[in-house]
Structures are given as C-alpha cells and as structure tokens.
Specification:
Blueprint lengths: L1 E4 L1 H8 L3 H12 L11 E2 H21 L15 E3 L6 E3 L4 E2 L4 H5 L6
Antiparallel strand pairs: 1-2, 3-4, 4-5
Length: about 110
C-alpha cells in the first residue's frame, strides 16, 4: 500500500537534500517510468531511504544544522500530475479539473 511519501517529505524529516534522496532512489530502484514525473514511495521504499541516510541525518541534528521534523500534516489536498503535466489526479486516482490561467482571468466576479 502506497503512503505517498515524497522526497520532499523525507527532506523535511531527515534534513537531507531531496536531490540526493532522488539520486539514491534512482541508483537503488532505477529511473521513474515515462508516465510519471514524481516519486511517490511506498512504506518499504521510504523506510529504505530513512535507513540509508539515518547516520547522516542524526549527525546533522546533533550539530544543530537541522530543525526537528514537522509532525502536522499538510491540510491541502494531494494532487498528482502525469508526465506531460496536462492531466491532474487526486490521491484516489480520480481525474481533477483545474482551470487554466486564462479561464481564471476571465471568470465573472462573484464566481
């Protein structure tokens, strides 16, 4: 079961740059499939990253270089885009319509 942990989530948690986390993920699991452009890790893969960077993360915390991880979840909805960026889905895989910038500019007042 996917928990949708992203490299950005792990960066906040561990204090390790998400670029390094993505580099590790590519070395460990290969490149992302062509149909997606974001890493969404299942529990096993997220734990693998935590274990890999654990010692470095602890050293950063001990030196005071990293603030403690935030435990409050993001209140906003989780949305995902396909590789082209033209289609957006919610966490359940349902298609979500997002108006274009042009549509937002021409929206009548009070809408």
């Amino acid at each position: 079961m996917a928990d949708h942990t992203t490299p950005a989530d792990l960066e906040r948690e561990l204090g390790i740059d998400q670029k390094r986390i993505r580099h590790y993920l590519r070395q460990r699991y290969g490149n992302l499939p062509a149909y997606t452009d974001n890493w969404h890790l299942n529990q096993r893969a997220a734990e693998d990253v935590r274990l890999h960077f654990h010692a470095e993360s602890e050293a950063l915390r001990a030196s005071g270089a990293v603030l403690p991880a935030m435990t409050e979840p993001d209140p906003g909805p989780t949305l995902f885009r396909d590789a082209t960026g033209s289609t957006t889905y919610d966490a359940a895989g349902n298609l979500v319509y997002l108006p274009s910038a042009e549509e937002l500019r021409h929206r009548p007042a009070g809408d």
